Amino acid sequence: MFVALNKNKERVHIASTLLTEKYYCPICGEELIVKRGTINAHHFAHKINSNCANNDGWHYDMSEWHYDWQNQFPVENQEVIFTYNNKTHRADVFINNTIIEFQHSHISESEFNDRNTFYRNLGYKVVWIFDVEDKDIEYLKDSNDGRIISWKNPIRFLKNINCEDLYLDVYLQIGEGIWYRQPDYKNIKDFNQLKIKGNIIKISDNSFDGLYTFKSDDFYSDIEIIDSYYNLNLQNKRKYPYKLKPNFHKLTDEIYIYDIDDFYGYCPYRKTDLYNHKECHDCNYLDENCMRCMYRFKNINKENISEIYDIKYDKDGRVIYIDIEINNQRKKYNLKPLPSYTKSLIEFSKILKNVKHARFLNIESGVNVQLSRYNMNRLINTGKCFGKLCNQYKKASSKEYEIFNWYKSEWVLTWYLE
Questions:
Q1: Whether the Cβ atoms of residue 178 and residue 227 lie closer than 8 Å to each other
Q2: Which end of the chain is less packed: N or C, by CB atoms within 10 Å?
Q3: Rg (CA), the chain
Q4: Rounded Cα distance, 332 and 377, in Å
Q5: Mind listing the pLDDT tens digit for each residue in 273-319?
């Protein structure tokens, strides 16, 4: 660790230690050793017989790279201690309700997931920055919605992350930090005097082309990441020069995301939960493939947008947050969430009050069922769900069966009869 407590329980950074003082672990309270070696960065360590590391269970990176990244943030934001469910851990950086974890050494998939779950349960987003400067990563080409990156020997479990998770971002540092290029950068307040490079990429799509290829929405600078959490108060600040032109196609709602011939969802134009997406052609806000809708963004003059910094989507692909530069002013918008396409069967039963029969598809299991008005009322009143099973030709069985998982939000409406 790089931050410990002195005898007065004040936080002390490893760079400010005195030989005459004793220092203690912020988690267990044990006296620590000050290590000043030549392999790892200077750090505090427990004595040999300590149980603190065993009780913690996580493996903390003590590399120079980790030390340098952590020191780009104020000391009060470094190595912040959190406790949840009788477990205590320390975050590399905690700032603006975000945990930032820096990883140079190996980390297992189970510990990676454990850390994400621990901080998510506390209500925080987790941002990971992995050191991959010496890895075989190659920029291939640009696509319509990002840059295609090849990674010959990847950290394999990163193929399993959910890139649509709003509480998780994973960045890869592929080039040296600005503290090496320009060690005094924090004293420079003129943006034009900074040596900015796009030395970081973000894993934005890992679901295609096998194990070794993924998409990054853009190149980022370490300055950009630091400045987004810890204001550097730069003058003459402008968009970063390595950025592509804004991709306006991303400033839309995805409206057809399931591999289903026919299903219903919420239409913001019609303001109804029962709008068939195959009929979504008549309001002039669709793209040419009828896949994305810009109705909610019709009042934004795209010609005046000079930068799109960030876009967040819900699990159905609709925009819930945008951070853009418009008319030379940076603006952030939280959009009103739209009803989800997927609901539980009891939620659908309450919506479909005047419907005689309806069919639903479970997008997780592939089960297709038909419920009558009687079945839906019975579900509302008793919590028991019965209905007819439908085969691949959409023909309903003559016999009714008990339907399970009706309480889970993993059903879509595919047909109904009033």
A1: no
A2: C
A3: 26
A4: 43
A5: 888 877 777 678 887 777 788 888 888 777 778 888 788 888 788 89
90-118 pLDDT per residue, tens: 899 999 889 999 999 889 999 999 999 99
H or E element that contains 139: strand 137-143
Structure tokens belonging to residue 89: 């851990």
* 361-369 LR contacts (CB < 8 Å, sep 24+): 361/260, 361/263, 361/411, 361/412, 361/414, 362/405, 362/410, 362/411, 363/258, 363/260, 363/410, 363/411, 363/412, 364/405, 364/408, 364/410, 365/405, 365/410, 367/403, 368/394, 368/414, 369/403
Alpha helix positions (H), 92-142:
109-121
CA-to-CA separations, 172 to 182, 194, 247, in angstroms, rounded = 20, 21, 22
Output 54 or 105, whichever has higher pLDDT: 105
CA atoms within 13 A of residue 64's CA, in its CB half-sphere: 9
53 sits in which H/E element? helix 52-56
Please check whether residue 78 is in contact with residue 70, taking contact to mean a CB–CB distance below 8 angstroms. yes
The answer on pLDDT for 258 being more than 60 is no
Return the DSSP state at 271: T
For residue 340, count other CB atoms closer than 10 A to its CB: 16
**Residue 324 CA: distances (Å) to CA of 119, 253, 304:** 28, 16, 10
- Residue 323 parent element (H or E): strand 319-326
Phi, psi of 202 (to 5 degrees): -115, 135
Contact 79, 67 (CB under 8 A): no
Token readout for 408 is 């889970």
